[in-house]
# Entry
Amino acid sequence: MNVKSVFIWVVMGAALIVPGLLMDGHAPCPVSAEPQTALVTVRVERIGVMPFLKGRHGSEIGETPDCPLSQLYFNPERLSGNADRSLTQYVHEALQKRHGEKVTSLEKALEAYGKISKDEAKDTLRTLAVKLGESLEANLMVAGTVWRYEDRSGSAVGAISPASVAFVVYLIDVASGKMLWKAEFNETQRSLSENVLGSWAFIRKGVKWLSADELARYGVREVFQKFPL
# Structure
């Protein structure tokens, strides 16, 4: 290896280890390290659902709430156009079953969200959840992102390729901006005897290949079984 080659490799190596930069040139987003709040002390006065965002950042789902919207990424080929709207609806329904009239109407939340000013380079999921919560006079907000929402190819009894869904849900305290809880769902149906189809919820309906919407609904139910409030 000649002197010129050595110099190129040294420069390239230095570029990859510059503190605070990723290989794509963006600074890494902060990973939430908030102390665990005693959720038994948290009361639902009014809770709302923010429309789901498309994308995530990095390998840690704790990064996403504090990443600028412009740094959330996903593969458009693996995310159907209605994924964010569908999951927003399913999460709202799940909250209503738990908290009834304490949940702000989805129509009101969507209208308020549309009026909020957004800066793609600065705003994050967390800042938008706080803004929307203040607008709705809610003390808690549920927000989330989705980065995979692929429908099955084929029929319910003979799929060529299965449905696949991945999303994360966060619970945000509006007054403090703290993330109180998070849960991820990341599933691809592998066979009629594996994964979610081992659940009685689907055995009762008959074994079949699920659509993306069915898998997403199941995922929301699974996530909210762990919901702390």
Q: What stands out?
A: The helical segments are 3-16, 83-99, 106-115, 125-136, 200-203, 212-225. Residues 3-25 have pLDDT under 50 and may be disordered.
